[in-house]
Amino acid sequence: MSEEQQVVAASSTGEARRTSPGKIIAAACVGNAIEWYDITVYAFFSVYLARVFFPAHDAGVSLLLTLGTFAVSFLVRPLGALVIGPYSDRAGRKPALTLSIGLMFLGTLLIVVMPPASSIGVLAPLGILLARLLQGFAAGGEFGSATSLMIEHLPHRRGFAASWQFTTQSVSTLLAAVVGTVLTSTLTDQQLDSWGFRIPFLVGLLIGPAGLYIRRHVPESPEFVASRRAGETARPVRTIRKTQKARVVLTMGTLAVSTCIVYLITYIPTYTIKTLGLPGSTGFAATMIGGVMLLLVTPIAGYYSDKAGRVPIMLPAAIGVLVTVYGLFAAIVVAPALGILLAAVGFLSVLKAAYYGPMASLMGDLFPTETRATGMSLGYNIGVAIFGGLTPLASAWLVSATGDAKSPAFWVMFSAAVSVASLIVIGKRLKLR
């Protein structure tokens, strides 16, 4: 390391020590919170978005077009990972995070101001698609850069620090559920169709400037600065392609069940309306319960993973999802009532939170500092594209194709089996705990 690099590293380390862990976690997680809030409200309000932006003669076709746009936006995430991830590994975590939050803000703004299809025709669905593609691209580099910033600033509390990536997701889900419950309970369908559906996206838009300010005033990761030796960060994509492909695949497998459940929960309001025939407020109430469970349990699981290890906590949770999810769906279908729905979503959310808490730190441990943001971003976003973006669409298709309201459980069971296998490999072959 050159003398200039040593000076920069020392300065960054000193500044990092003066920065509170809370500020570091807030800076890392604010973009993640905006991303997940926007994702959640899009899924929650897909019925209304379908009528406004994707009108069709058949309501089912209209909904599938809306959910298809939701799924397609996840396909651009790996591209964002390939652009923003290497940028983070070369230029730093802060510049990458500033870029991603700016693009997220722009995507949300487009949804807020987009005229309906009745006014501008085909430009409306194309505009919504562009907005979701921008958000997907930004999210592609968000997770790896933000998680790297936290675990590199707080190396002895990696599990607890990284758990806030997912805790803030639950905060976002909870906020979206509260907004959704209030709006669907107080506004008529006509009001929601004409202007009410824009309110949740406007709320998300207001968070952007605060997040940008926070990120610009947090120091760069001292571990990243210390790693800037000649050539170390020059070709992160090439390094991963040559020596770390298996670790990217394990990252994808690790997040499969967790991501699947997240997007299954976001699909619950649509599922309750279209499949169970319950009021929209019922689905939002169940999602609120799920958000509360995730908010309470996720940081606790992350905290204890610093003591007991990641895999010993995550593996039992994944197995629990695998063996119980079909029974939970069966109970909901047999007795489609608010109490049953709350109990099922709450139980599934507890298992998910136990899995969620240690997951980000385990994924970070799979990669060295020089390729961490790129490797995590690639594995995370390819996995999310498969097990996240396709979940609402797959759930709707399974119900439509089979006529069985319990059929979404099969997709969740498959995802859980993939995660169980990945954790076993990580524990036995890579010796990571």
Indicate the proportion of strand residues. under 5%
Q: Could you give the distance between the termini? A: 32 Å
The total of helices stands at: 20
Form type: globular
Q: Work out the oligomeric state of the chains in this entry.
A: single chain
Number of separate strands: 0
The proportion of residues forming helix, as a percent range, comes to over 70%
How would you sum up this structure, described in words?
The protein has helices at 3-18, 21-44, 46-53, 59-75, 77-91, 93-113, 117-120, 123-153, 158-186, 189-196, 198-216, 222-226, 236-243, 245-274, 280-308, 311-334, 338-365, 372-387, 390-402, 408-428. It is mostly helical. It is built from 20 helices and no strands. 58% of the residues are buried. Helix 6 packs antiparallel against helix 8. The longest helix has 31 residues, at 123-153. The radius of gyration is 21 Å and the shape is globular.
Quick synopsis:
The chain has 433 residues and is an all-alpha fold. The protein has helices at 3-18, 21-44, 46-53, 59-75, 77-91, 93-113, 117-120, 123-153, 158-186, 189-196, 198-216, 222-226, 236-243, 245-274, 280-308, 311-334, 338-365, 372-387, 390-402, 408-428.
Task: Annotate the secondary structure layout.
Elements: H1 3-18, H2 21-44, H3 46-53, H4 59-75, H5 77-91, H6 93-113, H7 117-120, H8 123-153, H9 158-186, H10 189-196, H11 198-216, H12 222-226, H13 236-243, H14 245-274, H15 280-308, H16 311-334, H17 338-365, H18 372-387, H19 390-402, H20 408-428
